[in-house]
Write a structure and sequence with these properties.
single chain, alpha/beta, TIM Barrel, eight-stranded parallel β-barrel, three-stranded antiparallel sheet, 14 helices, about 40% helix, globular
C-alpha cells in the first residue's frame, strides 16, 4: 500500500466533509453503550427560506405497551417523518427529556418510561439516534425539546427510578402542590440542566435545543422563602419577583452557553406562552432573552389563538411579539394550535372556518416572521383537526414560501 498516495486523498475527503458541513451522529462505547462525541463543525442550522416545524410530544413517541419496542419505535418514527416530509414541513421539534428523564442513554438522567414502560430501564436501543437518522434521510432539521425543571406531575411518571437525580439527591428538587420540580434557585440544579444540554449537543447531530413554556409553576406560594432570604443576606435587595426571574435567567444563560460551547452553530431557543402577560406569572423574562445576546437564538411564542378569539386574537398577540426589542440575529417562529382546529376552543371561533391555520401562516409570512411550528403531530391523525390540517398541507406543498 502506497501511504504517500493515500494520505492526500484521505485529507481531501476530510476537507470536503468540513466544507459541506457534515457532523457525525454518534459512536458507542462497547462497554456501557454511552454515546461518545465525534465532532465535525456544521455551519447551516436553519432553513434558508422559512422554518416549518412540528412538535412531536412524548405521548406521540410512547411505545411502553409494545412487545418489540425497537421495531415499534422505528415504524412510528418512519411514519412521523414521512408525514412531515409529505406535508411540506422541514423541522421536527421532538420531546427528548419530559420528566428529567431521557429517550437516549444519558450520563445525567434515567431512561424515560415512555420507551421501556418503566423509568430507568434500558430499552436496548437508542431512540434519539434512530430519530436523527430518519430525519437526515429525509433532509429534515431536528431540534431536541427539553422540559428543564419538571420531575413529575401527580400521575406521570408513576414512579421515579433509583438513578433519577431527585431520588439520589432530594435537595435538588421541590414539591409544589403535589408536583415535583428542580429547584430554580439551586446552583446544582442549574448545572444539571446545562450539563444535559451540553450532552445532547455533543453526542447527537441535532440542529437545535428548545425549552418549552414551563418555568416556575403558577401559584407556587412561598416555597423558596428560605432561598430568597439567604440571597438577601449577601446580595443587594431585590424583590421576590426579581429573584425568581434572575434564577430563570441564570439557567437559560447557562444552557445557552453550554450548547454553544459544545457547538457554536447550534440554535438554542425557547417556546414561551403566547400571551406575554402570562409569562410574568412564570417568571419567564422573555423581554431580556429577546433583547440581549447570549440567551437565545430564537423565540417561538405559542400563539394558540384563533383569528377571532374574544380574549386575545392571533393578530393582536403577534403584534405584541413583533414590538419586542430583538437582538441582531434573533429568529422569530410562532407556535400554531393544530390541536384547537375544528374544536369549540376559543369560544367556538375555530368552528367558523376550516382555513384558520392557513390564514395565520399567511399572516406570519406577510409579517416576515422566520417560520412557524404546529402543535402537535397528533393533529395529523385527529378527526377534529383533519380539515384544517389538510388545508395547511395543501397550502405548504403548493406555496412553499411566498
Amino acid at each position: 500500500m502506497n501511504v504517500k498516495r493515500i494520505l492526500p486523498m484521505f485529507l481531501s475527503v476530510l476537507i470536503l466533509a468540513g466544507a459541506i458541513g457534515i457532523k457525525a451522529v454518534t459512536s458507542k462505547d462497547e462497554n456501557n453503550n454511552t454515546p461518545q462525541a465525534v465532532k465535525v463543525s456544521k455551519t447551516i442550522r436553519r432553513s434558508p427560506d422559512e422554518t416549518r416545524g412540528v412538535w412531536v410530544t412524548y405521548m406521540d413517541l410512547d411505545i411502553e405497551n409494545e412487545t418489540d419496542k425497537k421495531a415499534a419505535f422505528e415504524k412510528k418514527i418512519s411514519m412521523i417523518v414521512s408525514d412531515m416530509k409529505k406535508g411540506g414541513f422541514n423541522t421536527m421539534i421532538v420531546q427528548v427529556r419530559p420528566f428529567c428523564d431521557a429517550i437516549y442513554p444519558s450520563e445525567y438522567f434515567p431512561w424515560s418510561h415512555i420507551i421501556s414502560g418503566e423509568q430507568g430501564v434500558d430499552p436496548g436501543f437508542d431512540p434519539l439516534e434512530m430519530i436523527v437518522e430518519q430525519c437526515r434521510k429525509q433532509h429534515l432539521f431536528i431540534h431536541a425539546w427539553v422540559n428543564p425543571y419538571r420531575i413529575a406531575t401527580e400521575k406521570t411518571p408513576s414512579s421515579l427510578s433509583k438513578d433519577h437525580p431527585y431520588i439520589m439527591d432530594e435537595s435538588i428538587g421541590v414539591n409544589i402542590n403535589g408536583e415535583y420540580y428542580l429547584d430554580p434557585a439551586l446552583g446544582k440544579a442549574i448545572q444539571l440542566i446545562a450539563d444535559g444540554v451540553r450532552e445532547l449537543v455533543e453526542h447527537y447531530d441535532i440542529d437545535g435545543v428548545q425549552f418549552d413554556d414551563y418555568f416556575y409553576p403558577e401559584d407556587c406560594g412561598d416555597f423558596d422563602k428560605a432561598s430568597y432570604q439567604a440571597y438577601l443576606k449577601s446580595n443587594k435587595r431585590i424583590t421576590l419577583e426579581e429573584f425568581r426571574k434572575q434564577n430563570v435567567n441564570k439557567m437559560v444563560k447557562a444552557a445557552y452557553d453550554a450548547a454553544h460551547e459544545a457547538d457554536d452553530s447550534i440554535l438554542f431557543g425557547i417556546s414561551p406562552q403566547g400571551n406575554l402577560d402570562n409569562n410574568k406569572e412564570l417568571f419567564a423574562d422573555v423581554a431580556t432573552w429577546c433583547e440581549k445576546e447570549g440567551y437565545i437564538d430564537y423565540i417561538c411564542p405559542q400563539i394558540y389563538f384563533s383569528l377571532d378569539n374574544p380574549a386575545l386574537t392571533f393578530e393582536d398577540s403577534l403584534r405584541e411579539w413583533l414590538k419586542l426589542k430583538k437582538h441582531k440575529g434573533l429568529q422569530l417562529y410562532v407556535g400554531l394550535s393544530g390541536y384547537k382546529a375544528g374544536t369549540d376552543a376559543d369560544d367556538g371561533t375555530w368552528l367558523d372556518n376550516n382555513d384558520i391555520l392557513k390564514a395565520e401562516i399567511g399572516i406570519l409570512r406577510k409579517a416576515k416572521a422566520d417560520g412557524f411550528v404546529l402543535f402537535s403531530y397528533d393533529s395529523f391523525h385527529n378527526e377534529d383537526n383533519a380539515s384544517e390540517i389538510e388545508n395547511v398541507i395543501r397550502y405548504l406543498t403548493t406555496s412553499p414560501k411566498q
